[in-house]
């Protein structure tokens, strides 16, 4: 019986060693998973920073687009005013030129009639 008891003890020792090896392997697997979770956490933190920065950039782009639109509308208004002013000034120059030509013509006609 002592032999059988020794066999049982050896069998139990082998089972315990096998179970301890499995436990050790699982603990290593758990540690690897914990490390990978930490790395994924860092990736998500970096991603959150990027998303926040890009959100700010998108807001800035939107603001620049809105400012450009407003400036374009204002520029169009200024161009319309400038075109009207130019046409008005052009008309005034034509009128003044016509008046000066008429005055010169009248004076030159008057000089021709006056005997010297």
UniProtKB/TrEMBL annotation:
CDD domains: SNARE_Qa. This is t-SNARE coiled-coil homology domain-containing protein. One of its GO terms (molecular function) is SNARE binding. Keywords: Protein transport, Transport. GO terms for cellular component: endomembrane system; SNARE complex. Pfam families: SNARE (PF05739). Residues 20-82 form the T-SNARE coiled-coil homology domain. GO terms for biological process: intracellular protein transport; vesicle docking; vesicle fusion. It comes from Gossypium trilobum. Belongs to the syntaxin family.
């Amino acid at each position: 019986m002592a032999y059988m008891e020794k066999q049982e003890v050896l069998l139990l020792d082998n089972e315990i060693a096998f179970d301890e090896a499995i436990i050790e392997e699982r603990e290593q697997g758990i540690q690897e998973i914990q490390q990978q979770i930490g790395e994924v956490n860092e990736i998500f933190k970096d991603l959150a920073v990027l998303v926040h920065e890009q959100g700010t950039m998108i807001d800035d782009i939107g603001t620049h687009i809105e400012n450009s639109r407003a400036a374009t509308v204002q520029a169009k208004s200024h161009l319309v005013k400038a075109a009207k002013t130019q046409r008005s000034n052009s008309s005034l120059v034509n009128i003044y030129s016509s008046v000066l030509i008429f005055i010169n013509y009248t004076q030159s006609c008057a000089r021709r009639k006056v005997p010297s």
